[in-house]
Amino acid sequence: AQSVSQHNHHVILSEAASLELGCNYSYGGTVNLFWYVQYPGQHLQLLLKYFSGDPLVKGIKGFEAEFIKSKFSFNLRKPSVQWSDTAEYFCAVEAAGGYQKVTFGTGTKLQVIP
Amino acid sequence: NAGVTQTPKFQVLKTGQSMTLQCAQDMNHEYMSWYRQDPGMGLRLIHYSVGAGITDQGEVPNGYNVSRSTTEDFPLRLLSAAPSQTSVYFCASRKNPGASNQPQHFGDGTRLSIL
Q: How distant is the Cα of A71 from the closest Cα of chain B, in angstroms?
């Protein structure tokens, strides 16, 4: 079974600072990878996904993530955060192919200070 | 297009009571799932279904039952509520992952408190 680790539980940044949130997964085969965002009081929304192809994936709102297979990592980045990026971010992984369970990390709370 | 609809949005129960959390989707998605979200633990899969008539257990299935009589609906039943089931519950759906590279769509959640 796969697992996901998000090592940063709470991150505080000032506006315009750069962001990188770590995500490492454990699984021996091919995976699909996701980053979701949850704004306060709302449901999860997809930021970006990786299924195959270019390991540098661009998502909505200026976010991007890079899949590094050798490191089992899928870190989320944004060059300049805004106050509106304050939210909780979840990395998720599933074994590729067919019906598979999606496993979520424990989440990283990002607080952006104006 | 309503997407994934969960009802109710909030519910308070007493220990031992039963209830059903409703989930419906209008996107003709084969795959539906239930998660619970607890602080510091992310989302944990309770049960999932790959199509009408087919269900399976996730990571934390104890205390919950599901059924999938139609493609659209995937209710989650708590037979005898316990305080440990206090949580926020999310329903999600997606097209067949093997046929399309589509992620899950989430409902707005049900906040459940067990006293």
A: 22
* The pLDDT of residue B100 is above 60: no
The CA-atom distances, in angstroms, between A63 and each of A22, A60, B45 are 13, 6, 26
pLDDT tens-digit map of A73-82: 999 999 999 9
pLDDT in tens, B17-66: 999 999 999 999 999 999 999 988 889 999 999 899 999 999 899 999 99
pLDDT average, residue stretch B1-11:
89
Report pLDDT for B98.
Answer: 61
3-state helix, strand, coil in chain A (%, to 5): 10, 55, 40
- Helix (H/G/I), strand (E/B), else coil: A71: helix
Is the CB of A90 less than 8 angstroms away from the CB of B48?
no
For A33, how many CA atoms within 13 A lie in the half-sphere containing its CB?
A: 33
Query: How far is residue A16's CA from residue B92's CA, in Å, rounded to a whole number?
Result: 33
The chain A residue lying nearest B107, using CA atoms, is A43
Mean pLDDT of A78-98: 91
What is the rounded (10 degree) CA torsion for A5, B51, B107, A39? Answer: 20
What HEC string does chain B produce? CCCEEEECCEEEECCCCCEEEEEEECCCCCEEEEEEEECCCEEEEEEEEEECCEEEECCCCCCEEECCCCCCECCEEECCCCHHHCEEEEEEEECCCCCCCCCCEECCCEEEEEC
- Which chain A residues have a beta carbon less than 8 Å from that of B88? none
